[in-house]
Specification:
Helices cover 42% and strands 18% of the residues. The protein contains 13 helices and 14 strands. It folds into 2 domains: 210 residues, Zn-dependent exopeptidases (Aminopeptidase, 3-Layer(aba) Sandwich); 124 residues, no CATH class. The protein is elongated, with a radius of gyration of 34 Å. About 17% of the residues have low confidence. The strands form 2 sheets. It has a 7-stranded mixed sheet with strand order 2-1-3-6-4-5-7, sandwiched between helices. By secondary structure, it is α/β, with parallel strands linked by helices.
Length: 438
């Protein structure tokens, strides 16, 4: 009887030990409780991270056998950062994933990004596993419909530095971007983000189950370490180089090999070259241009009519001065005065005073060669030379609304791009430019 009891106890101990050795993944919904994280117009980071984390956990439990999911919080509470790390370490977890939402002053900033620790092991079983998960996350975000990846970064973030297992902090989108906030706040958006994270975790488990080929890590680095985007290309835009003593002075076309061409006239510089490429669907802009042209013609006709009337009055005076009261011969009448040169200059100045908007994507101490990876495939760039750097601009637009539409496209590739405005050879604020449109 004693032998049976001992056997049962040993069996129970063995089974308990086997359960204790079960794979544990810790999922950390960022912030919580009094720590709301960043706030948007309709949501708070702490709520979004909790909803997405729970959906990730549900998918893991449902589809990956042998993995136990542990949350650092399951409701609106605030575990301290040390407590989150202690939980993961005490559970002997094999993975730690912290989910967060991004924020920026630039309201058009968008995309996902993932971080791993600076103190990752340089050898042993866990070498490269944190970076591998971060890269897989970025790949899966793009595969599941997110257009912009801001890449993978290595930083000393507390929860990654103080956990003893492979750990990653991932930012699933920008709450400061209205479009992305709405997406993250929707059930569909949360489901897609959770699916992307789950698929990255599932792929990570397969690759690391029996050690992984480091060539896979190298391939992922090449494809997903740096920022990138999927789908929509940025429209083709004029390439010019602009030199200036402080801002803009003249537009000089630059070929693909960056060889300067003869300088254009000031009037040609001022006209937006993209005008001819504007979509025909922009009927309102075409109507405004047509109305402006008619107004100029009307003014010119009015001035010519005034000149004719003035000439007629002079002719009548000359006729009254003759002894017989007859008019002078028609051949002696002077023709109507042509449009004064001063008026032509005034019209040219009015044309050059129209604002032109462009998108600044970056600055560089030198002109970049076509094909440089920093241009992300762009082959047509306009350079603005300042005292010690070049501003790199793309696009031309004649209205601020068109510039905003262009900016939305450009930011898929260059998240920190912004609108700049010029009047002739002078840079102005966008506010000043908008006033000049009226």
């Amino acid at each position: 009887m004693k032998k049976i009891v001992v056997f049962v106890c040993l069996l129970a101990f063995a089974l308990g030990g086997s359960a204790a050795r079960k794979v544990v993944w810790v999922i950390d919904p960022g912030h919580g409780g009094h720590d709301t994280g960043c706030e948007g117009t309709m949501s708070k980071e702490k709520d979004l991270t909790l909803a997405i984390a729970k959906e990730v956990g549900r998918l893991v439990k449902q589809n990956i056998k042998g993995v136990r999911v542990v949350y650092t919080r399951e409701r609106d509470t605030y575990p301290t950062l040390p407590r989150r790390c202690e939980l993961a370490n005490d559970k002997g977890a094999q993975l730690f994933l912290s989910i967060h939402v991004n924020d920026a002053e630039n309201k058009f900033a968008s995309g996902t990004e993932s971080y791993y620790a600076t103190n990752v092991p340089q050898s042993g079983a866990n070498m490269g596993k944190s970076e591998l998960l971060a890269l897989l996350l970025q790949r899966q975000y793009l595969a599941n419909g997110r257009a912009v990846s801001r890449g993978v970064k290595q930083e000393a973030l507390y929860v990654c530095e103080h956990t003893n297992m492979p750990s990653v902090l991932t930012e699933v989108g920008f709450i400061s971007n209205l479009e992305e906030e709405a997406f993250m706040n929707s059930k569909q958006g949360q489901a897609l983000l959770a699916k992307a994270i789950y698929e990255a975790l599932a792929e990570w488990q397969k690759l690391t189950a029996n050690g992984f080929d480091k060539r896979e890590l190298r391939n992922l680095r090449y494809a997903y370490m740096d920022p990138r985007r999927e789908s929509k290309p940025v429209p083709k835009i004029t390439v010019v180089k602009e030199k200036t003593d402080d801002a803009l002075a003249a537009n000089v076309p630059v070929t693909a090999t960056n060889q300067a061409q003869p300088q254009q006239s000031a009037a040609d510089e001022a006209r937006p070259k993209a005008e001819a490429e504007q979509p025909q669907t922009k009927k309102e802009e075409s109507k405004q241009e047509e109305a402006a042209k008619k107004e100029l013609v009307k003014k010119a006709d009015g001035k010519n009519e005034e000149a004719k009337q003035e000439e007629k009055r002079d002719e009548d005076k000359r006729a009254q001065a003759k002894p017989d009261g007859s008019k002078q011969p028609q051949s002696d009448a002077k023709p109507a005065s042509p449009k004064p040169a001063a008026q032509k200059n005034a019209d040219a100045k009015a044309e050059s005073a129209k604002p032109v908007y462009s998108i600044q994507i970056m600055t560089s101490p030198t002109i970049l060669k076509i094909g440089d990876y920093r241009l992300k495939g762009e082959t047509e760039i306009r350079y603005v030379q300042t005292a010690d750097r070049y501003k790199l601009l793309v696009g031309n637009a004649t209205t601020y609304q068109d510039a905003k539409n262009l900016l939305a496209q450009v930011r898929d590739k260059f998240p920190d791009a912004f609108i700049v405005a010029y009047v002739g050879d002078r840079q102005v604020t966008t506010g000043e430019a908008m006033k000049m449109e009226k």
